[in-house]
Amino acid sequence: MGKLNKEDIILLFLDDPEKLEYKIWNRNVPKSDEIRTLICELGDPECAYAYARYIDKSPRSDTRESACKDPLYAYCYTLYVDKSPRSDTRRGASKDPECAYAYARYIDKSPRSDTRSAAYKDSYWKERYEQWELNYWLDNRKKGD
Predict the structure, then answer these.
(1) Exposed/middle/buried for 57, CB within 10 Å: 0-12, 13-18, 19+?
(2) Across the chain, how many H-helices and E-strands are there?
(3) How far apart are CA 15 and CA 4, in angstroms?
(4) Which residues lie below 8 Å from residue 14, measured CB to CB, with a gap of 6+?
(5) Where do the structural domains in the chain lie, given as residue ranges?
(6) 41: exposed, middle or buried (C-beta count within 10 Å: 0-12, 13-18, 19+)?
(7) Are 9 and 37 in contact, with CB atoms under 8 Å apart?
(8) What is the chain's Cα-based Rg?
(9) What's the pTM?
(10) Which of 52, 79, 109, 137 could form a cystine bridge with 63, CB 3.0-4.6 A?
(11) What's the pLDDT tens digit per position in 2-51?
């Protein structure tokens, strides 16, 4: 089967959203404004993230906004598409304590009050954040000596 058109995408999404995600991950969806808009309107954060990463191969506000509806895909969007921190993706990732911790550690690469308060909503991620933050400050103090 070749690349999907708009009608195929709608039918595939209505029948089985996971099959659509599979098609996007395997780059069997054409690059077009119409299809991108449709994917964002379908409201599936994974599809929007995958479309941005594998089809557009660049960030766009519409795919970013759709991906940010799920903390994991907000984090992944920043890591693999934006490739730098942004307030909107940080907000999206901070809806989940684990994603907030990962965002602070691997994207921001420094503690922040917003990611800290999000991570502190779960005792496990609070402990991990505290330990990482302590090590962060100790490491930076050593570099300053």
Answers:
(1) exposed
(2) 10, 0
(3) 14
(4) none
(5) 1-69
(6) exposed
(7) no
(8) 18
(9) 0.84
(10) 52
(11) 666 667 776 666 666 677 777 777 777 778 888 899 889 888 899 899 99
